[in-house]
Design brief:
Strand content: 5-15%
Distance between the termini: 6 Å
Shape: globular
Structural class: mainly alpha
Helix content: 55-70%
Radius of gyration: 18 Å
Number of helices: 4
């Protein structure tokens, strides 16, 4: 038995899909930008001979991978991709604000958390619509 929530019946279906696609492109650009920085295209890069990895470099490497995963999952399947993006964006935003060093920027962290809050508000308002259907198969 599966429960299907028919979101396609809401009036915001097309708008939500386009918004998720735009967000996916932005997150993919963010991920590729991080990789360009790590590989040395934009900055000093990650050198294999470097043995003293600091926390900023570790977080940059982890989020370079997670940003691409979140962007692709948001683009491919916006229903579960939004959850993956939510987790990655929340973690990035909180770490960028809480980090004492130069990991990310505080502005980008606040902007990311603002996008997360907008996403949560969107979920609340779409779920509050009485015209959606719940089907138990």
């Amino acid at each position: 038995m599966a429960i299907h929530l028919d979101v396609s019946q809401t009036k915001l279906h097309f708008v939500l899909e386009v918004a998720y696609r735009i967000l996916a492109v932005v997150w993919l650009i963010k991920g590729f930008w991080a990789w360009a920085d790590l590989t040395g295209v934009l900055g000093s890069g990650l050198h294999l001979s470097k043995t003293d990895f600091d926390a900023d470099l570790s977080m940059a490497l982890i989020f370079a991978i997670l940003d691409l995963i979140a962007g692709v999952s948001l683009w491919m399947s916006w229903r579960w991709g939004a959850g993956v993006w939510f987790l990655v964006a929340t973690a990035y935003g909180l770490l960028a604000i809480a980090a004492q060093s130069d990991f990310g920027s505080k502005f980008l962290g606040v902007l990311t958390l603002a996008l997360v809050v907008i996403h949560l508000m969107r979920i609340f308002f779409v779920r509050a619509q009485p015209e959606k259907r719940l089907t138990i198969v």
